[in-house]
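The methods section describes the discrete structure representation at length, but only in general terms. Since the whole study asks how a given chain folds, the encoding of that fold should be made plain. An entry of this sort, consisting of the sequence and the corresponding backbone structure tokens, reads as follows:

. . .
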Amino acid sequence: MNSAISSAEEQEHVRVPESDQPAPEIENQRRSLELKQRKWWISVFFCAFLILVGESLVTLLLNFYYVQDARQESDQDKQYSGTWTQSLIQNAAFPILVPLFLLFPLPKPNPETSSNVNETDHHNLRFRLLLLYFSLGVLVAAHSKLYALGKLYANYGFFSWISATQLIFTSIFTALINRFKFNRWVIISMIITILAYIFGTPEFGGSPDEDEEFYNLQAWCTFSANVAFSLSLCIMQLGFEKVLVKMNKKGFRMVLEMQICVSLIASLICLVGLFASGEFKELKLDFEGFNKGKSYYILSLVGLALSWQVWAVGLTGLVFYVSGLFADVVHMCVSPVLALLVVYAFRFMDDDFGWPRRGALIGAVLAFASYVYFLRKTKKTEIAELNPRENEAEV
């Protein structure tokens, strides 16, 4: 009798953990997912930091270059020259990423994936990868050239309004190409980001004089640059999801490979444009006419090239880890910070960090926080889905 009672108690004791506690497999999956998400968050904030640092250096060095090149004091012919050079500089420093790319180990082949992919499919994937890199290289080269033209033909206010449409293009392409579903937190983030960008755009040392207005040309250049940039972000995200993952490419090595290959193609296109347009002949005049001297001229261009790569790696990383839309939001939210740096570094006439820019800085922080809150809710949902009882409790 006592043995029967004790056996019944033991059975009851065994059943309690199954009903009240999560299974060991689920707990291990939860811990693994939490660790994976923690690494993911570190990568996201690291890429956002690269965008902030890279874009800050680009803005400061670009203003320094055009101020010392005396573009505002020059005639119209020189005012709008050098755009192929700036386009090439924006992409040409990709070789510095090659040693970093080689440090990352090759991913181990997946036997299940390798057995399911035959030789024909493998060749198709390689062709799609080459087509992806070539199309992105063309878009990046087009954006680099049109962006350089747009800034030189722009005045301060007109450029900020036109450039703000970039996020609208990105959202449209994201919905059509990447099938992204918007919610209220993303929409709020986008609206605040656009307002922060409009009121927080920094001054630019290469802007034309107020009496030189080329609104039609500047508008078309800026609109076209926005379309090329937004389309490149969405195609890049599609390439990560549909092509590179199927080729067993993983992690930050994939980001570096994307950036190196795309920059290589964009650099070749810009190099051809530099020589075909005859603009290479102007390099000697710019080199000798730089106010700070030849050494500062070389250092400014080298610094610009390196800074552009830092920015581009951070941007590509955010596309990989999150989405092209989030990468564009972070890129535009940096604008008020850049305005603050330009105000205190150059002291342009009538340029200050007044209340509109202060409000833009606060708005940029809120826009970034709104999107991060949406991402946090998404990650919490992934963890909750591991435990059916938590889902039932939430319902």
User: Anything to note?
Assistant: Residues 1-21, 389-395 have pLDDT under 50 and may be disordered. The longest helix spans residues 24-68.
